[in-house]
Amino acid sequence: MTDATISAREAKPLPKWAVVTGSIVAVVIAIVLANAAGLMPKGTLLHGALIKPFVDMVDLPDLFVQTIWEGFVGGVLYALIALGFVLIFKASGVFNFAQGIMVVFAGLTLVGVYEKFASFGFTGMIAAYLAVVVALGVMFLLAVAVERVVLRPLVNQPDIILFMATFGLTYLLIGLGETIYGGSAKVMIADQLGLPKGAIDFDILGGRVTLQKLDIAAAVIAVAMIAVLAFFFQYTRIGRALRAVADSHKAALSVGISLNQIWIIVWFTAGIVALITGIMWGARSDVSFGLQTIALKALPVLILGGFTSVPGAIVGGLIIGIGEKIGEFYWGPLFGNGIESWLAYVIALAFLMFRPQGLFGDKIIERI
Amino acid sequence: MFYREAGQYKTTYKADMAVFPLVQDRIGIIAILAIAFIGVPLLASEFIILSVMVPFLVFALAAIGLNILTGYTGLISLGTGAFMGVGAYACYKLTTIFPGVNIIVWIIVSGFFSAAIGVVFGLPSLRIKGFYLAVATLAAQFFLQWCFVRIPWLYNYNASGAIEVPERTLFGIAITGARATPEVRYLVLLSIVVVLAWLASNLVHGRIGRSWMAVRDMDIAAELMGIRLLPTKLLAFAVSSFYCGVAGACMMFLWYGGGEANDAFNVNQSFNVLFMVIIGGLGSLIGSFFGAFFISTLPTILKFGVPAIGIPLTGAFAEHLTHVMVGALIIFFLIVEPHGLARLWQIAKQKLRVWPFPY
């Protein structure tokens, strides 16, 4: 071994984060200097991409805050869907594509049941919450059916087969939902459920920021639900069993945990999450089958945060939600708009290049 | 009784390694080709050709492409629809810029454009694996789809925003455009599919195919055995996208005769092709054909077949029922035979070998 290699070994390499932050700072300084030197006159592409968005952000801070808030709410809702994915993936290793349609199905069931009640003249808050209970019952039945019909016969199959099976489930639920509730969009019973309406205006930073009360409620409910889930996972018997199953099916079986029961519980939990997501998304727009495409929005959130991490789903949701809105608002015009459809994926892909298992995912260990 | 290898001795290594080692297999494939080339155009009605055979062949090509990537190399891709789109748009641009060159040449060449794009989006596959990669390929799907809509140059600034397939001829016979008869389109498509399927069969049975399968089974072990991962994976992406691109070009030019990206090359198309590969059987070329036939004709069969046996169905309800049936059948097939229709085919052949005696 030569002296050079020894000294190279002794010299501690810079930590990764330092390299990344350092290069980002260097790029920012370079851009600022280039701008000061007049290299990027107004109206050019470089100016539009590198200077103008930031100038806009500083010039109109109220608009910037508004954009971030909208991104935040969107992110929370993405996080909710991703949460449903993560729960099921952790416990059963199934990449549940049907989560998106479960959201729609749960929402439609809620509205459909309430309409049925209303046709008997039974309306109001009590009816609405009774409808919630019925919808929960339906989601429970769905969980049992999925476990019985899909998961149990397919136990021990490769992941991709299970993934495809949830695809079949998606088609099944689309067909079933359309047959029962019809294909037309429905209005979520937000008022009857006691969800707030209207907006609050804040006068800050020399401008006005409008917060929809519904969005605030959505954020609060999402945070509360995540807290409840964290508590459930951490401190209850079933939560411990769920974590045991997530770690190892075999070990869990050998200490007497019933996999079948756990799967039903997990799918039911995902169903509850789906119902709440359905109510929130439904109240913001309406309940229709178009909503199922939000599952595709949740996928980048999922890979960004890591398939196996609940905090990852939340952080990922916020990064994607805010990044998407800011990107669309400030950089979108540069590309001719509509970049929302793929921006989330590109953001997630950029993160994945550095952490292939997502931000919080279990480290992938490969052995021969 | 009729299908067994008894008495068929192989005297050369080449004969032993043949793709169709049995005489019966060779007779079978010749018979199938004869039926496909002569029987179908002569006997089948226009409806059968246009709504059964042509979609089947187009999707078979796409399924072969995806099978090379997912079944043979073990990389899940959800960007198939977009790669098909690249082929279609490349073919459209090429044939409008160089109208003199034969369209069949451009259909094949457009596959190379698709392959180039596929390689670019395949680059992350060295670092990202499994479902993470599957979601990452969705980036390709949405980005390319956005390009198809937002870059008017791609569709020649047509007011409709769609590809309008011009008429092109071969030996004076129209093969694309409004005047091309279904039989001609079918024959052109069939020829392309047969040649490309033969190429794919040679690829996957040779050294390249072996290295793909080694990477699929365990990429670290493959690397230790001296297979270079990056070229192998990128080659899989390139070949796969080539097939998908040709399928996309065929779809637009020989089947749809024009259309828009958001209808033909959306994410549902990607999922559809993935279904075909999985239902047909991962890592099986014949499975790609089975899967493509099953999935592409299922809606047609349900739409026209179910009323024919006396169950009346009305429009919207039939559509919903189709969804339910497709979903249920997918789950059913996965439960009954997770290795796909190709495995059923193998089992059937094995049974035939010993028939009529059980042992």
Could you characterize what this model shows?
- The complex is a heterodimer of chains A (368) and B (359).
- Chain A is mainly alpha-helical and 368 residues long.
- Chain A is 72% helix and 3% strand.
- Chain A has 14 helices and two strands; from the N terminus they run αααααααββααααααα.
- In chain A, strands 1-2 form a two-stranded antiparallel ribbon.
- In chain A, helix 6 (125-151) packs across helix 11.
- Chain B is mainly alpha-helical.
- Chain B has two domains: 1-7 and 16-43; 44-354, ABC transporter involved in vitamin B12 uptake, BtuC (Orthogonal Bundle), CATH 1.10.3470.
- Chain B has helices at residues 13-16, 23-43, 46-72, 80-97, 103-122, 130-150, 182-205, 207-217, 219-224, 229-256, 261-264, 267-280, 285-308, 315-336, 341-354; strands at 168-170, 173-176.
- In chain B, strand 1 (168-170) and strand 2 form a beta hairpin.
- At the A-B interface, helix 7, helix 12 and helix 14 of A face helix 6, helix 9, helix 12 and helix 14 of B.
CATH architecture of chain A: Orthogonal Bundle
Question: How many separate structural domains of chain B?
Answer: 2
The biggest beta sheet of chain A is recorded as:
2 strands, antiparallel
Overall morphology of chain A: globular
What are the segments of chain B in which pLDDT stays under 50 over at least 5 consecutive residues? none
Helix content of chain B: over 70%
Order of helices and strands of chain A: HHHHHHHEEHHHHHHH
